[in-house]
Every structure is written in structure tokens, then in C-alpha cells.
Amino acid sequence: MELSRRDALAALAASSVAVGGGAVLTTDVEEGALDGTPFGGGASSGDDERASGDGEADPLAEDRLATLLAVADVVYPSGVSGVEEFVRTYALGRTADRPEHREGMVDALAALDEHARSWHDAAFRDLDAETRESVLDQMAVDATNPDPEGADPERVRFYVVNELLYALYTSPTGGELVGLENPQGHPGGADSYRRGPRE
Amino acid sequence: MSGETNRVPSERADVCVIGAGPAGALAAHRLANRGHDVVVLEAGERFDFEDRERRMERAIRPGHDPLSVWEMGGPRDAYSSAGERFYPLNRARVKGVGGTTLHWQGMVMRLHESDFESWPIDYDDLRPYYAEAERALGVAGADDNPFAPPREEPYPLPGFEPSHSDSIFAAACEQLGVTTHSVPNARNSESYDGRGPCVGYGTCKPVCPSGAKYSADHHVVKAEEEGARVIDRVPVQRLAHDDAGERVTAAVYAAPDGTTHRQEAREFVLAAGGVEIPRLLLLSKSEEFPDGLANASGAVGRYFMDHLFAGAGGTLDRRTRQNHVGFITSESHQFYDDPARATEGTAGGIPAWDDAPADPAAVKLEFLNYAGPSPVEMALSGDEWGDDLLDTLREGYGNSIAMGGLVEQRPRKENRVELDPSTTDDHGNPVPKVHWRVDDRTAASIRRANEIQRAVLDELGADVSWTVGPEATGPAFHHMGTTRMGTDPAESVVNAQLRAHDLRNLAVASSSAFVTGGAMNPTLTIAALALKASEHVDERL
Question: Would you call B375 helix, strand, or coil by DSSP?
């Protein structure tokens, strides 16, 4: 099933992110307004390679986005496509006016990378799919309770894994995957609850 | 946070309203509209509407204290629970502009005529105020309920159509002779009063991000537009009275900067809910009122009631289409006035109640539209991901079905809110201590609700996996009865005009004035009483 830009915008609408002057749910979001990475433009403190914010590609920011996408590759079902644009658009919108949330994501991604390096001597994004999953398993991210203030596995669960799962399963396409076209958290109207199943 | 930061008292006020929930907001709006100078004192903060999606996310995503959705808890909100049942008070209320309507479900039924038997007013007295309250809250409803009390005009908004799962229930209920009907909702089915229609976030309780569900912050703004002044984050510490003990003279409140102020007024309206109202009266004891202000009867804090939840659910071998919306669209009030009655349908029926000795009290049955877990909540708390997670979600979502219900708890003197001198809040005041137990008659009512629910689910062929009966029941978070209305000053706290027997300028607009609670969600009656109390305040000014 194809994740679309519209899915990302709908998921963003469910998290109160105003993009393009509040035009989130419309199709007239300025072309290019959501390009770039969520972690560019002075992403985090202690970051020696921060971008100047003038549109230049920021290697570190791209790396962080690549790490986020590598996690999506593990936690999203294999049948969905369009993940890169979906995640990029969603994460950019989520972090645009929430510096603390962006800090939390950046720190959690760094923690994940640290574990990957200590066990496999490589960044998380550079591991093969099986090894990526094993890193999350070794950290016990699957069994841990998400906690934005917690230890590494708890923050990875909250800021990375659950961030991605929240985006997917509050989007129309994510809902459709499970069998409801108006998932909780998505303002999909007050009609679908009246309809019977399709089959 | 927006709003006024000047928290010094108004120099001249006709009315001081304590509490900015639905009762206080409606009273303030009505009295300001009548040309009176109104000051509203609210213990909690004024929340930004723009933050509502973020609050919704906090509600959906694990990793947050659920109380943090509306900033409840902490020293300000400390309480004690005594008695046989723990009472989770802070889950049951919100302090802030809008009050508990910020997290309520939005179900708005009128009490039945029979509910008023021991009240000093009857249904006809309240009927015009019910109609006004329905217009104020923007109630969406349909005139298809054969058990509802008489009404004079259509609902302001068309009712929400039944859900797909309602149609599944309706067929089984018909076979058992159980009548189903629509539900009045304080939720826009179309645009009304400057608020848009429901867009289906599915998270009504505890957060409606769109504002389609009525919340009282709406009437706070309308009150301000009529000239009322609303001061947030100023918990009232006590009420002061004159030397003769006949009139309240001032509400003493604490500001966030540590200062204490006195708001004087000609009339005072208590609208802080069924726990904080008796607490404030008890905190305001004086030489003239050694047992608490307006408490010559000793009834302040007594007769605390809630509704009890009864429910059952499981799965069907068909898709039930749950969790698209967060509200209910069908109920049955057939067992409200006569809970012991039998029914007869096309293929059997509900047997009459014969489980002596206790007779059940009123029962209200609900057909849920949000049975079973929502996929996103399952995903966020699961221990899998990828295709395994999706398989689990597909297996877990889709076939759930459930009924809920409220049952009546009759007033009992020993169920009460009192002060707990061993624990104090952030201002050094004793916290409220809730004594609460489920008596035999209430337990019988829960068993009766379960019996009917089980019969309906069996008729559907459901695989019933859970039942909430007398042991597992919990409160519906409706605080009633703690400043009861009555004609005898020796037995009750307020009179039929909602004015304290003991003080000439103190009105109570709250479910605390309920004499009995029925089994209907109380907010429409709270709103109607607030409008009635306001009329009498207006007459006195």
C-alpha cells in the first residue's frame, strides 16, 4: 500500500503542526515547503557540523534522517511504499516548531547509533536489515515502555519507534492497512462509522 | 497560556462565580448578559485551544501520565480516598477554564420525571431550563426515544445517525424485545454557534481537538464578550461572611505570585463541582458556622453519589467497525423507570428480575462504538513491529463488540466528602477525603444491567470475554449530592431556588444540589440548574 504525501500531511494535522500557514489539509502547500530534512538548520546543541540554514545540504542532518528511515524500514510493514517521502515530510513538520521534540529525536537517534557502533562498529543506517532489527532487539526496545525522559531504550522507543508508528497508524493509509479508514487520531469525518464492511 | 494576568480583585462586582466549568460558564454568561458585573474565579489555568492536538497525542501515546493531558495532579489537587472503594478523584475532573467538559464524553440526557420524586422541584419546573440548556450546549438528538420525558421542541441539531454496530445490536435487541434509540450528544452534527461539525478524531474523551464537542470554555468566552471578567489560577481558599452570618461578603483567593486577595460581591455562585463546593464550605467554618458555612443541616459533603459502570463485551465472527468515532449513537432507556421489567421479542426476551432481596435502581444501557483497542494504541504499546505487528493489529482489531451502562446509586449519608486534616494542599488547606462504597441495591442494579447485556450479547452469538460487574465496577465520574436541595433547612443545604438556606446571597449551581442522581449523565441537568440558579440570582440583584 502506498503512503502518500497526503498521509503525512494528515498525520501532521493530527499532531497540531501548522505547515504552510495552516494549509496542512489543503493541497496548496507551497512547493518545496516540506523539502529538506527535519534535522537541518541548527539541529542540536553540540553539533559541530550544523547547517547554515541557507539550503545547503547538511551531511549530519541527512545522516539522522537516514537513521530514522532505517528504523522505519524495520518497524513499518513490508507492504508499504513511499516511506521516504512520508517520513521526511512528517518528521520535518513535527520538528519545525517543536525544538524540544527535535532535540529528543536527535538524542535518541544518537543513542541508537552509539549502540550500533559499540556492537557492530557501524552506524545504524549502514547495517543490513537483519542487523538493524537485532540492535533494536538487543536494546530491548520492543519490550520497553516508552518514556521521553527515560534511559536509551525508553527514549528510542518514544522518540523514534513510537514516533514512526504514531505517524503511520494515525494516517489514512495506516488505518486502511488494519481495516479502518478513519483511525483514531485522524480527523477522517463522521461518516465512516456508519458504513458496513466492504467485503 | 493566554488571558488576563492581572489577578487583583474587581473593585465592584455584582456577582462572583467560583468555578469556570459548565455551571459557572453558563451562570456567568447569563448574568453578564443581564447587565451585571460578573467576576469568575477559576482554580485551574486557561488552556490554549491550539494545544488540543498535542493533548490528544499525549492521550493516545504511552509515555505520559494520563493526568498530564489536562495538567491535573500534584499538590494543588491532592486528595484522600477512604471507605470500601478507592475513588480516583483526579481522573474524574479537570480544573481549568472549561472544567470537566474539557475531557467529558458529551452525553446529555434529561432526567426522567420519576427522578424528581424526592426533589423540591419537579420535571416541569426544570423543563424550560432543559430546553435552554440544550440550545446553549448545542445538543444533537432525535425524537425517537419512547422512554424519554416529554419535550416541547426538537433538538437544536439533528442527531447523529446510528453506527454500523448499532445495526448489529438493533437486530438482536428486536428479537429480545429490547428497544434501542438515538442518544442526545453535546457534539455538533453540523456547524452550530461558531463551532464546526464533528470531524471524527475518535478521541472525544479526553480531548476533542476540533471543538465540535461542547466544552464550557466556549461559554466563558461568550461571558467575556458580555463583559464578564475571568481570572484563572486563583483557587478560592474560603468564603467570608458578615457579622450577622446572613450574607457572604468575599471570596478569599490565592494568586500564583503568592498573594491573597478578597473578591467582594453582592451575590456568590458556587460552581466548582460536587467535591470542591462542599470542601470550600467546610473550609469556610467560622464562629457562626462551626461545622462549615451553610452547614446548619450537617448535610454539606454528605450523600455523595456517583453512577456506576456496568458492561460486557467480546467478539463476533463478523466485522463490527469500531473506533471510527469516540462517541455513542444508540442506547436503551427501557430499563430506566422499571429496571425489573421483562421484555418479549420475536425470539425470546429479557426475564423479569427475581433476584431478591434488593430491587435494582435505574439502569441505562449503552451500545459502544469503541469496543476493543484502537490499532494505533495497540501499535504503540505492543512488543512487535513490521509485518508481525501488522498481523497482530489485524487480528486484534475489527470484531470487538461491547455494551456499557450506568446504574443509579441512591443517596446514603455515609458516602461523603469531608476534610482530611492530615493532608494539605499547596496552600496548606486540608484536602478532600472521599468516603464511598457500593451498597447492596447498587450492586443489584449492576447485576441487572449485566443480565440484560449478557442476554443481548448471547443473542448476537458473541464470544463474551469480559464483564464489569459489582466487583470490578468503577465510578462514572459524576459527583452528585453533596449540597443537596430541599425544603427543610434541617435536612438540606440549598432550597428550591438553589440558594443556601443559611445565607441570603449564596447560590449553588452544580450536581452537588442533586437530591438523587438517576442513571443519566448529569451535565445537562447541571446546566439547567445553573440557568435556574442564575434566574434567581438575577431576581435578587
Answer: helix
